[in-house]
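Annual report, structural modelling task.

Input specification for the iron/sulfur cluster complex:
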Amino acid sequence: MSAKGDMLYAWANDADILEKGECGGAVTTLLKYALESGMVDAVLAVQKGYDIYDATPVFITDPAEIIKTAGSLHCGTLLLPKLIKNWLGGANDMKIAVTVKGCDAKAMYELAKREQINLDNVIMIGLNCGGSVSPVSARKMIADKFETDPDTVVKEEIDKGQFIIETADGHKGISIDDLEEEGYGRRANCQRCKTKVPRQADLACGNWGVIGDKAGKATFVEVCSDKGAELLDAAVKAGALATEDPIPKGIVIRGKIENAMFKLADKYREKQFSELGESTDRLKFIMDETSKCIKCYQCIENCPICYCKECSTKKAHLVTPGQVPPPFMFHLIRYSHIADSCINCGQCEELCAMDIPNALFMHSLQTEMEKMFGFTPGVNMDLPILALVEEPAERDRLSATGSDQIFDIFK
Ligand code: FAD
Ligand code: SF4
Ligand code: SF4
Ligand code: SF4
Ligand code: SF4
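The model returned the following structure:
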């Protein structure tokens, strides 16, 4: 029987999954087993769409379809939790298994603590994540730096610090450090991200630490909850999943890589935040950048923390309607409502029509608030600084009192 904290190498017993999986197909096997066995009603995962730059969310109820999701898409910058909230009833009426990168796992927690997702009905299969590359910049990077037509690439991977592409002519890899020095590589928020092994999930799965004859053919699994242990044990017992103890040196290597990634993220935070300037210079920079805003609302639509039915940015007395660019108050509202809980998922920047570095602004505020109040979003179920309230009740309170404070911290 496995238990929280256990570590192991795992791979699929099914030959097809073993071949198609990124590193032995353990994740695909676990998702398939969870669905087949009735532990969950459905699976939410990611699969290749039109091409390798098109990572598409997929909702599956037929176990035979799970195989289509095998493989990692490093240009998949999407975030799944808000889909569960918006389209799957917050998992209140069905049990769902979902693959989560660190940012997904943190968004799950922030939505769950606001009662927008029922985590009791969710099994989170975590994926270690060194970072993802925006599809647009991946195409440019492959054309410019790899001198390869992006449409001829059949597979991409990130391994041993390199971004590697595969075409009919073979493999080509370039060091991510070198790419990033020249402005390519991972998204800026991924460079700053320190959630590399998503231990908030029920199982955390990745290739770091798999050495010896299983390198590339098995996944390193860390058991992070009783729910994770139960799924893992059941899949092994049913003969779907093979496991073995990890090589001790592999555990050490995994820890060292994780630590090195933390240090790198700190370096990027320092660099990117300092480039914003200090004090009024920083304010001016943010005001200048946001003056490009066309009020497309993508930042709000896609932020996992933004889900109010009556968004304050749509209130005429706060933000003058019909004005483009909108008054700075539009952005100030979001900063004041989200800054304590921003999980640095990058969605508000990735999907901004005007390439405004919204996530950078928000993350820089969040890290300052974290220093002041000690609250780190997405790591556990602790309430945010601006303690949460149920929205309709809060709206009533706002109307009754005339207050503009969304969250009542003195509740
Ligand atoms: P498979 O059986 O092939 O299953 C892979 C699962 O991942 C599928 O269910 C698929 O739906 C899901 N998936 C694919 N792309 C995404 C995506 N973009 N977002 C959410 N779900 C997705 N491991 C490390 O140890 N170090 C790393 O630096 C690292 N970086 C990663 C970066 C990304 C963007 C991703 C997606 C994965 C990363 N991994 C990393 C995990 C590793 O690549 C494998 O996914 C893991 O070892 C499981 O292998 P497997 O064969 O069991 O997975
Ligand atoms: Fe991975 Fe973190 Fe980037 Fe999310 S924000 S894709 S977890 S590196
Ligand atoms: Fe993600 Fe942006 Fe919302 Fe922060 S503000 S949680 S980076 S969408
Ligand atoms: Fe986001 Fe604030 Fe609008 Fe709610 S009111 S959706 S928290 S900006
Ligand atoms: Fe403005 Fe960008 Fe937000 Fe659209 S996504 S409303 S352009 S800041």
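The longest strand covers residues 42-48.
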